[in-house]
Amino acid sequence: MTDAIITERLTKHYHGQRVVDSLSLRVPAGSVYGLLGRNGAGKSTAIKMLMGMVRPDSGTATLLGEDINSVSNETRARIAYLAEGHPLYGWMTVGQAVDFTRTFYPGWNDVLVDQILDHFELSRKQKYRRLSRGQQAQLSLALTVAPDPELLVLDDPTLGMDTVVRRDFLESLIQIIQRQGRTILFSSHILGDVERVADRIGILVGGALRVDCRTETFRESVRKIVLEFVGTPPDSAQVPRMVNCRQVGTSLELVLVGYDDAQREAVEELRPQSIEVLDLNLEDAFIEYTRGSRRSLPLFATENEDAQSARIEGAA
Predict the structure, then answer these.
(1) How far is CA 122 from the centre of its chain?
(2) Does pTM top 0.90 for this prediction?
(3) Phi first, then psi: what are they for 36, rounded to 5°?
(4) Separation CA 20–CA 44 (nearest Å)
(5) Best CA proximity match to 316, nearest among 242, 235, 253
(6) Domains along the chain?
(7) What confidence tier does 164 reach under pLDDT thresholds 50, 70, 90?
(8) Could you point out which of 128, 142, 152, 286 has its C-alpha 20 to 30 Å from the C-alpha of 77?
């Protein structure tokens, strides 16, 4: 499978601080890739560099096989970008926004736009500034997919939506995804959304890519281990691939990557009264992982994915 997006050591500094740190990423063509991270992790900056809105300090990147610094007009017409906050001219009506955006795309699909506007019950006479945040996102989605792009890049597309509108938006997005050959890269703060639509995720921690694997691989690899002791818990520093450790009374809560025999033996050497291994959903796994150590971490790959296709880093 070819890659729709490739970055090699893409780096950006602001005011002396490295906000994107040597990002090397591959997004396979036809995949749905969720780019995750806490606020300030570098997601939006990485996306803006891909879109040519911010120049990287170093590194390279390609979109659909072309360098981001010299993307041809023909290739740009195959790429759609939905920005965070869905910025459009507030004085425009829905119809004027459609007509304005159409002029930039020779392959514009009026039938598809009408279908989406009708689905979301958006009138062409409505002023953009009078739309709710959810309606603004719905209009932005219509404008984004109307050129029938091969690659969609979405920066937190459901931000500010209520639960019902967000679900409807996602279901529409899933229908779009199912069209053959389309690739989607999107960032989101709503981990439930990511779990529903993304088949692969990347997680940025402090600007660096710490996870790059299938969504289910990450969810299944991060485990919380709860150890109960009679008195004060001992030091757990020798447990391999531990990303977090918290003491709660006479308990230790360890967050481990790839719970295996070596980790089990290390845990048992702590002599706990009991050991409880907890499965985590994607949101809990993300929270536990990203609030752990930010040190340089060794590579972990599951049995189902080799080191070239899966990366989940856990502390030594």
Answers:
(1) 28
(2) no
(3) -115, 160
(4) 10
(5) 242
(6) 3-206 (3.40.50.300), 217-312 (3.30.70)
(7) confident
(8) 128
